[in-house]
Amino acid sequence: MKIDVERAELEVIQGANDLFKEQRIQYVILEQEAGSDAQIILQSHQYQCWMIDEMRNKLINIHR
Predict the structure, then answer these.
(1) Helices H, strands E: what count in the chain?
(2) Model-level pTM?
(3) Is 58 among the domain residues?
(4) Is residue 10 a contact partner of residue 20, using CB atoms and an 8 Å limit?
(5) Residues 54 and 28: beta-carbon distance below 8 Å
(6) What is the pLDDT of residues 45-63, one digit of tens each?
(7) What confidence score (pLDDT) does residue 29 get?
(8) Cα separation of 31 and 58, whole Å?
(9) Which residues pair with 62 in a beta bridge?
(10) What end-to-end distance do the CA atoms of the chain give, in Å?
(11) Closest by alpha carbon to 32, among 43, 46, 20, 17?
(12) Domain for residue 54, yes or no?
């Protein structure tokens, strides 16, 4: 699932909470600040969160 809703990502995540709880969605792509409420919700459903390190051109796993 790609979420691109111009600062309404949290509302989409909250609305799809049952889908995430049931892990019916394998991947979620969205742009958020590290430590956002959306990240916390996704991690509570066992999703791993990654950030893009543009300087090193690689993905970094965010552990919270």
Answers:
(1) 3, 2
(2) 0.80
(3) yes
(4) no
(5) no
(6) 999 999 889 999 999 998 7
(7) 92
(8) 16
(9) 49
(10) 22
(11) 43
(12) yes
Cα distance between residue 15 and residue 8, in whole Å: 11
Does the residue 1 lie in any domain?
A: no
Helix (H, G, I), strand (E, B) or coil at 17: helix
Sequence-distant contacts of 2-10: CB under 8 A, at least 24 apart: 2/28, 2/29, 2/30, 3/28, 3/29, 3/30, 4/30, 4/31, 9/36, 9/38, 10/36, 10/37, 10/38, 10/41
Domain count, the chain: 1
Cβ-contact 54, 42 below 8 angstroms: no
Tokens at 23, concatenated: 């892990």
Structure tokens at 22: 């049931």
Token readout for 3 is: 């979420």
Tokens representing 44? 């509570």
Q: Is residue 4 part of a domain?
A: no
